[in-house]
Structures are given as C-alpha cells and as structure tokens.
Amino acid sequence: MAVTFHFLSASGALYGEFLTRVHAALEACVQTCSAKLVLGDLDVVVMAAPNFVIPQLGVNGYAYDAHQGLLQFDPDHDSLAQNLEHRVSALLAHELHHCARSLACGGLTGTFGDALVSEGLACCFEEEIVGVTPFYAIACMGTILRQFAAKAKAHVDVPYRQLPGGWANWMFGSWTGDAAFPYQCGYSTGYGLIRCWLDATGNQASSSAGIDPNAVITAWQRGEIAPFGC
Hints:
Layout: E1 3-7, H1 16-34, E2 42-48, E3 59-63, E4 68-73, H2 84-105, H3 112-130, H4 142-153, H5 167-172, H6 185-201, H7 213-221
Helix pairs in contact: 1-2, 2-3, 3-6, 3-7, 4-6
C-alpha cells in the first residue's frame, strides 16, 4: 500500500510554511489511518481551490474510488491556519475511509441507503481518528432530524441520483431554510444511524469499512436499532 500525494504547484498558491504543514499533517494521518484500514495504492491530488471548500472549514475532499482522491484547500481561510493539522487529519481520514470501503466492497448499489451508511461510517471514522465529531454530522438534531430520518427511512432503496428533489438536498440539505430538507440532513442522518449501529454492535468504523449496507439498513427497518427513535 502506498499513498502518494500530488501537490499542484502551477498556481503558486501552495507554498512555504502552509505547504510544509499540510504535507506533514497528511503524512502523519496516513500512518495513523493505515494502521486501522486496509488501503490499496492511492493517488491523492492536493490543490488550492478556495471556491470549492467547505466554508466553515477551509478544506474539502472527494474519494473517487479505492485508488484516487482529491483534497482542496483555501490557504487564506480565516481560521484554517490555527486549526490546520486537525482539519487536514479529519478531512483525510474521512476520504481514506471511503477509499477503504470502495476497496473492500467493490461497487455498491448506489442507493440512498448506501450513501447514508458510507457517509455515516466516514464521519464516525473521523471521530475515531481526531476525537471530534464533524459539525455536519450533528448540524441537524432533535425533532427536525427525527422528521427527516423518517422520510429518509422510506427512501433508502431509491438510487440516490433519482431522489425526488435532487440528491444534494437529501444529503446536504437546503441553504435557504427549507423545512423539508434541513441543513446537513443526510450527513446527520447517516452519522446518527451508524453511531447507533456501532454502539449496539460494539464495532468501530475502522473495522466496519466492508460492512454490507443492508445489514445496517435492515436492522433499522426491523427496529433492531432505533436511531432518532424511528
């Protein structure tokens, strides 16, 4: 297993102390995560892309499959410098879990239930590595989350790209306060579902990268676990 980082340098935006700190944090995180996950050879592109980061964090990422990933940074983000090592580690851990899951499972069915399980596992792996729950995992809570989770439960078998209203609404929620799709509803639902399942089974996210999503979804549908009370 080798994780190779490819830093895009032509823009000149990644340089100096910022680049040194990012590189060191990434390498340290790989060592920690690779002791817990089965990873294949992986190429990760690292680039400055301020318009594509999560605004609250100054970072973003994407795992294409078991062998290709992307990390994006805003070097001028107001609070990133003070939290760089933590945010880099959390970001990479999340995406590495997706890569490990892709390697373990091959192709998943692409349903909304699959997406909830995969994102919930990645959020819980962030907790396992950095000890902090990502904000998007708990942005939606209480009655609003229970109402959305009940709706999500009825749509777990729908291919996520065929969800009515668009999959982005179902995962990220609405930025405009739409009650039907509360902010970060999908991520919060996935996290709550997996957190409940992990606690009930005694498993960890790191040891569950290859779990069949149906095992979690079926337990939820049968009432064997009751995240959100539903």
